[in-house]
Design goal:
The complex is a heterotrimer of chains A (309), B (365) and C (301). Chain A is an all-alpha fold and 309 residues long. Chain A folds into 2 domains: 1-56, no CATH class; 70-308, MetI-like (MetI-like fold, Orthogonal Bundle), CATH 1.10.3720. In chain A, 80% of the residues lie in helices and 0% in strands. Chain A is built from 14 helices and no strands. The longest helix of chain A is centred in the N-terminal third of the chain and has 54 residues, at 4-57. With 365 residues, chain B is of the alpha+beta class. Chain B is elongated and about 80 Å long. Chain C folds into 2 domains: 18-43; 81-300, MetI-like fold (Orthogonal Bundle). In chain C, 73% of the residues lie in helices and 1% in strands. Chain C contains 15 helices and 2 strands. Chain C has helices at 17-51, 55-59, 73-80, 82-115, 121-130, 136-154, 163-168, 170-186, 190-199, 203-214, 216-232, 235-240, 249-255, 265-285, 287-300, and strands at 258-259, 262-263. Chain C is globular, with a radius of gyration of 27 Å. The termini of chain C are far apart. The chains are: A mainly alpha (309), B alpha+beta (365), C mainly alpha (301). Chain A binds chain B through residues 200, 202-203, 205-212, 216, 220-221, 224-225, 227, 308-309, and chain B through 50-52, 71-73, 77-79, 81, 83, 85, 87-89, 98-99, 102-103, 130, 132, 146, 150.
Chain lengths: 309, 365, 301
């Protein structure tokens, strides 16, 4: 028996190797073809325009001459530009912080409710996210209307001073952040609720026996178990909020007096409305380094923790 | 003193009763095992002792205090969960010291306790690892270490070995017994495995359907089961229970099962004679009390013949299955006696170990 | 050794302090849930209230939170308005087409990435995730130029026609839909493949008879996501379409219905509500798929 096996073993792999390799190669090509539309779409409509915008940013207004970093130079000298930078960062960070906090807390409240009722509450609380933002922002715009504001009507009735929501720069900024938080918190709620349910109940019981109070349970059990999902949602939200267009455009169009502009709306104003494509491209482009840095740090954090597994 | 007393303990989930009135006294330092099939209420009872379940009625007393309203952290207990419930983001050291850190014990005290527990459990080199990097047996030991460092009045174990493979289970069983001998804390241990119960317990509590069937030390339960359930639950392979008729005959009482007649030992005549002729009786004999023909028979051992259907050689013994009065009966015979399926075999029944069971009431007579 | 039957004092049914704690937590939870529900639902409710008011009532500055003389005139005006109906039609066409395109691109790509290992598959998987780092607000300007260029050279009318949106929206929908589906496809155990192979199925049959039925929840969730995103997008239509007959709903309502200084708020709110209806209806009936789509993407990541 021992003599026969090596002989059989020698010829079979050679035959098998040829067959397998052929199938493997064919499988690989089929797979590649199946993914090709995706690759073309991303390459042609995302990567290429992104690179192209770098090129555009280096042209002059009529797009005939190359001006190198001239556009950026022009922007850096303008106070408005730096205000837009600061504004975008403040909006993004504060909105995301509130969204995450509200999402986290409300997720706990929903989780505490008996299971049958949870669906109802979840359904109601997600509605802001379902309504197209352009339309819900119009509703807020109407709620903030200088003459007819429904909020001011209530304030008058209970003796509080009325607020020029969109007329005063600071209140306008508050309004933008408020609408942003209103729109985005439900997303965090849904994510965190799902994550909460995946934490094993026995960990909480062990913590209860170990003597943890309710906030200690959150700090020592819930938050560490949710670190990954928190990082991912915060990253996504930072990007989306930072690059937001709809809310500012509809509420204030960047006003009053350009005081609430963020990157997207200002780029729109300069590039499309002002017909200065390269300048608009430069403004938009400036977003990218900030986004990339944020993404880098958060992704590295996720990866590092993933490797601990 | 760290004794545990359960008084008329009841637990209902909505309208469904899970525990129907448990009375149990566990003296200090005793290792008590709650054993029974799934759904018998043993885990619920354990969780009520821990404080993880609300008590519907009755009292749980730990030491001298009724602890019904006391939250788990103040009951001075420690629990080892079936799934270990280790904090995945903390090291072994942090897992074990978590409760102590919450209590704000001084650092030196915490360190001392952790090191001592690690020494007992052989965890000293693993203190800096995370649970993900440990094997199942190691994780179980960390869970026990977490319990030991708290220096509690009572240890509670919730089926801790169910997630381990068979070989590891045997190993860990011995470890747990050794630790109990070292640490000597009152322990309540829940399992569905009667082998674990028998090997670990000072006393075994057999539960069924929310009630206690019998409490006793392992040997007592094995040799003197009080109910049909306990008789069939304890011991592997399980006790044979064969429908039989009890007849009054010339020399005393005898059992009739189909064509086989076995005389009841004289010592039992008084006990059983009232039941002669009663229907619904079962003859209970463990497989090891049905064996091959031997040259020298003691009084009480009576020969009969049967035809084996299945023969299972186990190495040191052979299990032989045959049919009798409509039941599958298991006999434990010597491997050398030549048992073969289909070939009539001469067997002996040792009626000194007979358990006569009344099927209707479930009691052993 | 029988169980000690204690002649004990009557065991009282104890509503322990733990039960009280849990009840308190529940009451506080409900309290805050109601507060947040009010916060989240005020704008939609207000939309509805306003939409049922006539212009006269809005102008009269009575209680804005209550409708004294409810009227459907805003709705009838909109349904009769050809312009509004055009917006609706455009949105519907664009969204449906984009969903189809998205599915055609995403499903095979997800299958390939989840199941077959080919050169660059891991890089591509990462790349799909990273495209979300490049938001539409960065791309709309170069795209503007690119489309203008294509129009000039090839004569295809790209600017100011809504089907340019059909080309562009997939960049918003495909990455996430692919990601959702990779998660679903990957969760199908390989043993299913092998059982099918033994039963004699070819690759195509595996895809149609096994994968797609099992991954159907994911496909539905991805479809809902793609539809909702296409329906709601605002920046691209604002940038690329200008004339009224090419606008989709979000851009249409904001630019056309808000004319000059006179805002017909009753009509605007009715327009918004009607415009939000498709996503809301899908959400109401398919809520679980909606939510599954969201969470699947993130938790698999």
């Amino acid at each position: 028996m021992a003599a026969v096996i090596p002989a059989a073993g020698q010829s079979a792999p050679a035959r098998r190797r040829g067959g397998l390799a052929r199938i493997a190669r064919r499988k690989s090509t089929i797979a590649f073809l199946m993914a090709l539309p995706l690759i073309l779409l991303i390459g042609g409509l995302v990567i290429y325009p992104a690179l192209y915008s770098i090129h555009l940013a280096t042209l002059n207004k009529s797009m005939e001459h190359f001006v190198g970093l001239g556009n950026f130079d022009f922007l850096f000298k303008r106070d408005l530009f730096w205000m837009v930078v600061k504004q975008s960062c403040i909006f993004a960070v504060s909105a995301v912080v509130f969204k995450a906090l509200i999402g986290f807390c409300v997720a706990h409240f929903v989780h505490n409710v008996p299971a049958k009722g949870q669906r109802k509450w979840r359904g109601m609380l997600l509605i802001p996210w379902v309504i197209p933002p352009a339309m819900s922002t119009l509703a807020w715009f109407w709620l903030f209307d200088p003459s007819y504001s429904a909020f001011n009507w209530v304030f008058e009735r209970i003796g509080l001073p009325t607020i020029t929501w969109l007329g005063d720069p600071n209140w306008a900024r508050f309004a933008v952040i408020l609408v942003n938080v209103w729109y985005g918190a439900p997303f965090f709620l849904i994510m965190y609720l799902a994550a909460l349910k995946s934490v094993p109940e026995q960990l909480y019981e062990a913590a209860a026996i170990d003597g943890a109070s309710w906030w200690q349970k959150i700090w020592y059990v819930t938050l560490p178990m949710m670190r990954n999902i928190i990082s991912i949602t915060v990253l996504f939200s930072l990007i989306v909020t930072f690059a937001n267009f709809d809310i500012v455009r509809i509420l204030t169009s960047g006003g009053p007096i350009d005081q609430t502009h963020i990157f997207a709306t200002w780029a729109f104003k300069l590039g499309i409305e002002g017909n200065d494509i390269p300048l608009g491209a430069s403004v938009s482009l400036f977003m990218f380094p900030i986004l990339a840095i944020a993404a880098f740090f958060i992704l590295r954090d996720i990866n590092r923790r993933g490797n601990e597994a | 003193m760290a004794q545990v007393t359960l008084r008329k303990l009841v637990k209902n989930y909505d309208e469904t009763p899970a525990v129907r009135g448990i009375d149990l006294d566990i003296p200090d330092k005793e290792f008590v095992v709650l054993v029974g099939p799934s759904g018998c209420g043993k885990t619920t009872t354990l969780r009520m002792i821990a404080g993880l379940e609300d008590i519907t009625a009755g009292d749980v007393v730990i030491g001298a205090d009724v602890v019904n309203d006391v939250p788990p952290k103040d009951r001075n207990i420690a629990m080892v969960f079936q799934n270990y419930a280790l904090y995945p983001h903390m090291t072994v050291h942090e897992n074990m010291s978590f409760g102590l850190r919450l209590k704000k014990l001084p650092k030196e005290e915490i360190e001392k306790r952790v090191q001592k527990a690690a020494a007992i459990l052989g965890l000293a080199e693993l203190l800096d690892r995370k649970p993900k990097q440990l094997s199942g047996g190691q994780r179980q030991r960390v869970a026990m270490g977490r319990a030991i460092v708290r220096d509690p009045k009572v240890f509670l174990f919730d089926e801790p070995l169910s997630n381990l493979d068979a070989k590891l289970r045997v190993q860990m069983r011995t470890e747990i017994k050794k630790i109990h001998q070292q640490v000597r804390t009152t322990t309540v241990y829940v399992t569905h495995d009667q082998v674990e119960a028998m090997t670990l317990a000072d006393r075994v509590v057999v539960m069924n359907g929310g009630r206690i069937e019998q409490v006793g030390d392992p040997n007592h339960l094995y040799h003197q089961p009080a109910t049909k359930f306990v008789a069939g639950f304890i011991g592997s392979p399980a006790m044979n229970m064969i429908a039989c008729g009890l007849e009054q005959a010339a020399g005393g009482l005898r059992l009739r099962m189909d064509g086989v007649t076995l005389p009841v030992p004289e010592s039992r005549t008084e006990r059983y004679k009232a039941y002669a002729g009663k229907p619904g009786l079962l003859c209970g004999l463990r497989p090891e009390h049905l064996f091959e023909q031997r040259p020298h028979l003691e009084p009480g051992q009576h020969p009969f013949e049967a035809v084996p259907v299945v023969v299972e050689p186990m190495g040191n013994e052979t299990l032989v299955y045959f049919a009798l009065n409509g039941h599958d009966v298991c006999a434990n015979v010597d491997p050398g006696c030549g048992a073969k399926p289909g070939a009539p075999l001469k067997l002996v029944a040792d009626l000194r170990h007979l358990h006569l069971i009344d099927d209707a009431s479930g009691k052993v007579l | 050794m029988a169980a000690v039957l204690g002649a004990s004092s009557a065991g009282t049914a104890s509503a322990g302090s733990m039960k009280r704690d849990r009840k308190r937590a529940l009451y506080w939870s409900y309290f805050f849930l109601v507060l947040f529900a009010i916060f989240f639902l005020t704008p939609p409710v207000y939309m509805m209230i306003t939409s049922l008011k006539s212009s006269a009532e809005i102008g009269a500055v009575t209680n804005p939170w209550f409708v004294y003389h409810p009227t459907l005139e805003n709705y009838t005006a909109l349904i009769g308005s050809e312009q509004y109906l055009t917006f609706f039609k455009n949105s519907a066409i664009v969204s449906v087409v984009v969903v189809i395109i998205t599915m055609i691109i995403s499903i095979p790509a997800a299958f390939a990435l989840a199941r077959m290992k080919f050169w660059g598959s891991t890089a591509l998987g990462m790349g799909v995730f990273l495209t979300y780092l490049i938001p539409e607000t960065l791309l709309f300007i170069p795209l503007f130029k690119i489309f203008a260029f294509v129009q000039d050279t090839l004569g295809i009318e790209m600017m100011n026609h809504y089907w340019v949106l059909m080309v562009i929206y997939p960049t918003l929908t495909v990455p996430f839909c692919t990601w959702i589906m990779i998660g679903y496809f990957a969760s199908i155990p390989k043993e299913l493949d092998e059982a099918a192979l033994i039963d004699g199925a070819g690759y195509l049959q595996m895809l149609t008879k096994i994968f797609i039925p099992v991954a159907l929840p994911g496909i539905i969730a991805a479809t809902i996501f793609a539809f909702t995103v296409s329906w709601a997008d605002f920046l691209y239509p604002m940038a690329f379409t200008t004339s009224a007959d090419q606008l989709v709903l979000p851009a249409g309502i904001v630019t056309i219905l808000i004319r000059g200084d006179v805002y017909a708020w009753g009509q605007i709110m009715a327009a918004c509500l009607l415009g939000a209806l498709p996503p809301l209806l899908i959400y109401a009936f398919l809520m679980d798929y909606y939510i599954a789509g969201l969470t699947a993407g993130a938790t698999k990541g």
